[in-house]
Each structure stands twice: as C-alpha cells, then as structure tokens.
Amino acid sequence: MIALASDHGAYALKEKIKAYLTGKGLQVEDFGAYSLESCDYTDFVAPAARAVADGRCQRGIILCTTGIGASISANKIRGIRCALCTDSFMAEMTRRHNDTNMLALGAGITGELLSLHIVDTWLDTAFEGGRHQRRVDKITALEE
Fold this sequence. Notes:
The chain is of the alpha/beta class and 144 residues long. The protein has one domain: Sugar-phosphate isomerase, RpiB/LacA/LacB (Ribose 5-phosphate Isomerase B, Chain: A, 3-Layer(aba) Sandwich). It contains 6 helices and 5 strands, in the order βαβαβαβαβαα. Strands 2-1-3-5-4 form a 5-stranded parallel β-sheet, with helices on both faces. The protein is globular and about 45 Å long.
C-alpha cells in the first residue's frame, strides 16, 4: 500500500499519480487533498506519514507546489525518511543509499511525465544496505 497526499496546489498531479499507480495494479491510500479548494499540506501529509511510520502503508508519496513544505512536514514524523526529488537520479540514490520511505514531489517544479519517471525509479530501486545501513541507523538515532 502506498500512501498518497497533497495540498490543493498539487492536487491535479496527485490524481494523475494515483491513476498511474492503480493502473499498474498498486494499492494506494489517498489521504487528500480531495479538491482544488485552498488547504494546508500538513493536514494531509502528516496522516500519510503516520501511516507509513506505523506500517499501515509501506511507502508514501507526497506533493505540494514545491515539495519543500511537504517534505519538511513528513520528516517531523518519527520513522520517516522523506526525500524531495526533482530528477530520477535523486530518486534512485535516495532509495539505494538512504532507504527513504517517502518521496516528495513539487507539482510546480516537475511536470507529469518527469514525476511519473521519478515515481517509477523510486519504487523500483532497492536499498543497498551494507555501509549505507550504518548511516541510516545514525539518521534514525537523531530522532532520540
């Protein structure tokens, strides 16, 4: 299950990503926003991040206009490692080296096709472990 959340500024791209993922046979839990009505990304991102942190969802994809506020909000939740990615190389490396469990996208930064490629890369890339596990453990320890 993939948690999905956005604010109004990224609502259209969230809906396209949701359709794309479900079209690939993946299960998605949509935490909102549910319209173009002005809203605050934290109201939707935080519940999505909590669902990933507690294991209800394996990973999460969150969006706002830049992706910055959404990623900052998600990273406030214990157990979340969220990366804002603007290209596929970033998406690959954040999975390989940081074992991120959430991806942030900026609807005003990346278009639909690039966003879908970033999503695919992020979902398809495995964590390498090894020396990177030590670093992920140190990141996790910062939450204590």
